[in-house]
User: Which sequence fits this backbone?
């Protein structure tokens, strides 16, 4: 269909138009600008030859072309893109470029560009271009980033490595950044092959909380650009080092068209147009290699090298302090030297304190604390030395110096500590009654430590034991320690409850005692009417003694007259006591004696018992 | 009589010889002899034989630590001393050696800052007690509490007296509980010692993960969890990361 159209109609071309533009129009030294040359009206355009722009480094980013037919009229649009990196600040004018369009020469217009210096620009740059991070702005200026043509051409994803500088002194850090450019959805998966960093000491930077992502247009394609890893490399020896940056791996999403729709989804020029309803996505792993990096490490200059220089490169400060400025003779003090700054602190050697006649010094300990929050390797190194004064007086611990090479100033520097003044008081006097010794008297004093070593081995073994989990980590331990007191508490509560219930039962017996006695008296009367003498006396006995048992919470069979009389002393009059004893005696006789009472006697006994119980009830026993 | 005396002497010496001929020289004793001669590597092998996989001894571990120290294997020496310290925290020789060794380690391991000063104070004051001793003390106090409660249950008349003692017992239980709480971190997170010369701690359990920081042999870390041959560790109470299992030795 497309071919037929080309044969059947003679296309009418629009007039030639050339537009040049630079984006952004204000730049910074080292930051890339995009020069675009757009040619309208012709499809036959040869790429212009880029002249050597003064004050700029430049590369081509390739070109793209679009041709369309509207109402029988063909229009063509060709875009040439170039990257220009300013090398000096100031107002620059870009000269004209020559183009060959349809075999005829054309020239572009001139363009003016304002370029600022790095320091002035940092304050005016938008935060969209600065790395977003929870930490303060990085100390290292961003590396110049330009992309040579062979990275272009519509690649889906590629990686580029940048170094802030490739010519350094030995031990001066080079900051290496890995930047991924992608125009597909991708997930960075680390390194398939780690970089080979022979000849360098490496310090890794922690991954940023928010990865800096930017969008850039390259060769007409929109790329997402992200820095995925940054390391600091400290060359350990002079020479030209070729660094193999390694191979990264990423998972990329590929969106593909269903075959069924392919015929309908291409235009007359055979370009595919994706229809979202028929897209299939799959994830494929991809390895991303990048070119080796050449770093030249120059030896440190000999000119001006201080005598105490030990190889430290960076920017440092040093300070000294002492934990106590007034002590007694023989008491130790600790002198702390603190070296802080930027550089490879692991290899920086702190100076030793000089020998002092009035102090005895012992082995020192040192520790290093490295920080990398500001995308710069910095930190501190601390050395502590124990000194023991040998005599009293006021003494000065002299200052110590630390020499280093400052790569920014390209010269050696020496930092010094301030001297420390310590006052040593005399030790305690000897006791008045010193022991008599044979030979010359040696005053007692603390035995100074002259060296340290581990103590000797044990010559006697202790018994071997099985390795077990600590008791505190065992569930059974906690269960036992909870269960036993819980059980004890439970027992205590149950006992308490039983006592409460028993007290209440006692109260219930007391409250019901009169009613129960009445019912027993009623049973005795019934037996009396029936003439059942034995049963009568039994019932009467139960009524009387049962009444006392209920009143005084006695068990069955516990009540007897002796106990009753003891409990009732002071509660009954003598007459009442006499009546009680008489009734009890007659009941006893009736129960156990062989002689039988007359009916009247039994009735009288019943009436007396009834009256007695009523009297006792009124006493509220 | 003249015959008896020499015979008696012969019997005594003979018996002594017989005893010594049947005496068994243990790996521990051999290790000590080799150490005295300066043969530290062989001495270490003997002490390792003495301590098998399931049984340990504070003296054996201490001696093994000395051998490793002499051989320059600081990581293993720290591991042996720390393990011995769990069994015998009051051994002054052991504490001396461990302190001396710590001074020589490159990674300074300051005590982690604690949110409560009480925690650090209790830990320091009870550092010479074994964890099991604390556990037994706590159990003893709980036992006394139990007996007192049972006494109060059995003898109601004695209750006022019992309550007074019980108050003191509860206070003691609280104190023991505070000590157990101070030790809880040690129990919950077992410790390990780096035995490789240098090892990178990474942000993830994989060699592809970014390096976080570098540890040297002898550094003590807390193991937070384990996954696929890697330990999630904490160093100095704050720095965290992942480390390969083979690069450390667990103390417990």
Assistant:
């Amino acid at each position: 269909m497309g071919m037929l159209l080309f044969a059947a109609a003679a296309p009418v071309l629009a007039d030639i138009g050339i537009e040049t533009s630079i984006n952004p129009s204000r730049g910074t030294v080292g930051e890339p600008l995009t020069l675009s040359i757009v040619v309208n009206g012709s499809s036959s355009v040869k790429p212009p030859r880029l002249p050597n722009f003064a004050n700029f480094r430049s590369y081509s980013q390739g070109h793209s072309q679009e041709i369309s037919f509207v109402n029988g009229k063909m229009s063509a649009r060709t875009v040439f893109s170039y990257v220009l990196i300013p090398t000096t600040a100031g107002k620059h004018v870009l000269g004209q470029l020559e183009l060959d369009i349809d075999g005829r020469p054309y020239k572009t217009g001139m363009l003016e560009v304002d370029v600022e210096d790095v320091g002035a620009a940092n304050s005016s740059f938008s935060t969209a271009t600065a790395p977003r991070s929870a930490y303060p702005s990085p100390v290292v200026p961003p590396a110049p980033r330009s992309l040579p043509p062979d990275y272009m051409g519509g690649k889906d994803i590629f990686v580029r490595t940048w170094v802030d500088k490739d010519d350094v002194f030995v031990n001066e850090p080079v900051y290496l950044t890995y930047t991924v450019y992608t125009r597909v959805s991708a997930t960075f998966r680390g390194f398939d092959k780690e970089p080979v960093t022979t000849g360098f000491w490496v310090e890794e930077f922690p991954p940023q909380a928010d990865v800096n992502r930017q969008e850039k247009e390259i060769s007409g394609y929109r790329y997402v650009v992200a820095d995925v890893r940054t390391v600091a490399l400290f060359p350990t020896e002079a020479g030209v080092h070729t660094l193999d940056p390694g191979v990264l791996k990423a998972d990329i999403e590929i969106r593909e068209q269903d075959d069924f729709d392919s015929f309908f989804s291409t235009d007359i020029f055979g370009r595919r147009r994706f229809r979202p309803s028929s897209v299939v996505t799959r994830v494929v792993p991809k390895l991303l290699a990048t070119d080796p990096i050449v770093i030249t490490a120059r030896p440190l200059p000999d000119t001006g090298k201080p005598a105490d220089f030990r190889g430290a490169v960076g920017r440092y400060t040093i300070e000294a302090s002492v934990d106590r400025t007034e002590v007694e003779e023989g008491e130790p003090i600790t002198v702390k030297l603190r070296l802080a700054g930027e550089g490879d602190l692991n290899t920086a050697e702190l100076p030793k304190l000089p020998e002092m006649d009035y102090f005895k010094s012992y082995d020192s300990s040192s520790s290093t604390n490295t920080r990398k929050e500001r995308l710069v390797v910095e930190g501190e190194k601390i050395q502590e030395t124990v000194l023991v004064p040998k005599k009293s007086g006021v003494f000065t611990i002299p200052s110590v110096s630390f020499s280093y090479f400052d790569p920014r100033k390209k010269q050696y520097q020496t930092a010094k500590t301030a001297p420390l003044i310590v006052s040593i008081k005399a030790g305690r006097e000897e006791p008045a009654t010193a022991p008599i010794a044979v030979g010359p008297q040696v005053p007692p004093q603390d035995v100074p430590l002259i060296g340290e070593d581990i103590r000797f081995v044990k010559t006697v073994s202790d018994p071997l034991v099985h390795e077990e989990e600590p008791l505190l980590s065992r569930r059974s331990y906690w269960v036992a320690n909870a269960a036993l007191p819980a059980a004890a508490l439970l027992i205590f509560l149950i006992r308490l409850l039983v006592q409460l219930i028993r007290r209440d039962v006692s109260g219930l017996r007391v409250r019901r005692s009169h009613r129960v006695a009445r019912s027993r008296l009623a049973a005795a009367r019934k037996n009396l009417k029936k003439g059942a003498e034995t049963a009568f006396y039994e019932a009467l006995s139960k009524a009387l003694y049962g009444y006392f048992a209920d009143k005084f919470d006695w068990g069955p069979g516990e009540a007897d007259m002796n106990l009753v009389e003891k409990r009732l002393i002071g509660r009954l009059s003598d007459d009442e006591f006499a009546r009680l004893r008489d009734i009890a005696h007659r009941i006893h006789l009736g129960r156990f004696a062989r002689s039988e009472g007359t009916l009247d006697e039994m009735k009288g006994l019943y009436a007396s018992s009834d009256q007695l119980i009523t009297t006792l009830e009124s006493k509220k026993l | 009589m003249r015959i008896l005396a020499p015979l008696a002497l012969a019997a005594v010496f003979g018996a002594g010889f017989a005893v010594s001929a049947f005496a068994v020289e243990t790996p521990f004793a051999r290790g000590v002899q080799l150490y005295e001669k300066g043969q530290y590597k062989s001495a270490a092998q003997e002490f390792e034989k003495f301590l098998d996989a399931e049984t340990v001894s504070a003296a054996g571990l201490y001696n093994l630590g000395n051998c490793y120290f002499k051989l320059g294997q600081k990581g293993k020496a720290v591991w042996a001393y720390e393990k011995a310290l769990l069994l015998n925290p009051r051994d002054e020789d052991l504490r001396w050696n461990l302190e001396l060794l710590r001074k020589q380690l490159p990674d300074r391991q300051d005590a982690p800052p604690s949110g409560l000063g009480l925690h650090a104070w209790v830990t320091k004051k009870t550092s010479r007690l074994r964890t099991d001793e604390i556990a037994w003390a706590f159990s003893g106090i709980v036992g006394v509490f139990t007996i007192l409660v049972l006494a109060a249950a059995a003898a109601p008349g004695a209750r006022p007296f019992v309550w007074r003692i019980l108050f003191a017992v509860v206070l003691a239980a609280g104190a023991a509980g505070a000590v157990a709480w101070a030790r809880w971190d040690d129990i919950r997170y077992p410790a390990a010692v780096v035995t490789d010369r240098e090892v990178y701690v990474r942000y993830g359990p994989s060699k592809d993960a970014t390096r976080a920081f570098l540890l040297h042999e002898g550094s003590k870390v807390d193991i937070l969890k384990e996954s696929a041959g890697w330990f999630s560790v904490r160093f100095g109470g704050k720095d965290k990361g992942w480390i390969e299992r083979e690069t450390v030795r667990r103390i417990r």
Notes: The longest strand of chain B covers residues 220-227. The first helix of chain B runs from residue 4 to 22. Strands of chain B lie at 55-56, 191-194, 198-202, 211-216, 220-227, 230-235, 239-244, 248-250. Chain B has ten helices and eight strands.
